[in-house]
Predict the structure.
Amino acid sequence: MYFATASRVLLRSATQTISRNAVRSLSTQAGVIAGLSSRNVTLSTASCLPPYIKKEQRSKKKIQTAPKSTLSKTASSTIPERDQYNVSKTITGADACAQAGIDSLGITKIPKIYRNLTFQELFDMEVKNGEGKVANAEYGDTFTVYTGKFTGRSPNDKWVVRNPGSESEANIDWNSINQDTSPEVFDELYEKAITYFNTKEEAYVFDCFCGANPKTQKKIRFVMEMAWQQHFVTNMFIRPKSEADLDDFEPDFTVVNCCSQTNEDWERHGLNSDVGAVFNVEKKKAVIFGTWYGGENKKGIFSLMNYWLPMNDPPQLPMHCSANVGKDGDTALFFGLSGTGKTTLSADPHRALIGDDEHGWDDEGIFNFEGGCYAKTIDLSEKTEPDIYRAIRQDALLENVTLVEEDGKIVPDYHDVSITQNGRVSYPIFHIDGYHEPQMAGHPNNIIFLTCDAFGVLPPVAKLSSGQAMYHFISGYTAKVAGTERGIKEPTPNFSACFGAAFLTLHPTRYADLLQQKLDKHGSTAFLVNTGWSGGAYGVGERMSIKTTRAVIDAILDGSIHESEFDKDELFGFDIPMTLKGVGESVLHPRNSWSNKAAYDEAA
């Protein structure tokens, strides 16, 4: 069992010290690694259209839900941000590349450039080009694309250039996540990408920003082949508000995405396949070959933010977490791996969403990196995820979601995972009612580490000391259970450093040290919240109800949890509240919820 391993020893030691050396030791001993996804072959453009399945006389059951959002299904006037984003330019002629600013990349021969198209122009172009299908989602027609066999990132094909003697060579944590390749390989691939784009009749350029705080904001440029890819990054990154934002736009980093091309020389280059996402920090450029998956663009830039921010003076903390803020300005962070409830719990009707995935923490507080959300759609329903469900309307972009014919319409079927369990939707953040428009807020009052403990030995909530917070941040623990991943037949521990190991460019202790400094300076309180099993392990006990977990989160955010007396757990050393409104006392103390106390003792 998980806590019978060395991990429990590490947890105990973490409670006794918060020194840098202890945290570094924990990181080394935990041996946390990123999850891997399989590599796949590239497909032609035509094969990337989403299939839809005709189901005769398919019945659609109506479920009882809370009243629907006051947002109109058709009237864009309720979403002023949609119309306010209007810096579009279609540039034609022999000097189109120069006018678009991409001639400095070596791209000089494309006669037509679509730069920062409006949402409506993107939709019209997607339909015109036949890049996918239009789904008749309940809250509005939504364009849908299919990325072939690449329904997720391909981490084995992500590379970082090791430039001898450079700052990045000295600081990057070179490992199986940050695989190194040579400047010569990058130069060959870059030349291949530029040569390819110079054969095209048209291309899409998107100039945007990453990071809501103007003091540390990065200017990003994407050069892409397809309208839907510009649509994706338009949803996900911070859009320019006016043409003035694009005056003399000099990107801090440029991504040249050749999704339709593959690298036939991959073996000679020492790479893992003909697919590649290769980043050169010093040259401020990246090239992507052979994968259509939109998330490669998003997470590639996130990995760079994980490099840039800690290198600032003073250093800042990048985080893989969601964030929201209360009406009194109290901020909360939610860290958690897939399946722990991060998206669900940060979407709170009494609080405003700052962002759902990527944030920074600087001397002024919390800020979102992005301008949109990228949510999983598996088993999505309005009852369980109303905000996400209602966000799927015009300007959202569905990715790898099965479409079915129903009553003369083509509608999404979120329960059909025959394409992939990683079906996604991207949408601009203004699709969320009451979102926090500044995208910046103060220092967090509460930090919540979410875990899905399938072994049933963790309480629904525990207050953590600084040392314990460091352990849980470094380990990033949750458990995979049967059905969550191919080949998983029994609960399996899963660790991901800082709840985002796949995107860390520096050593995990760099981020842990920064978090510890922030906790100590600003007095934030850290909690461990278990959304997993109680009363027994997976297959014996029951999963925590959303009602119980919501009661725990409410008590943390409204401060009432501090009115409870706390009992120190003898095994794990953290503090468990003895009473909590809306949570049974037997559930609060996991041993009491097990009918077989000896079995609990053995498992714990």
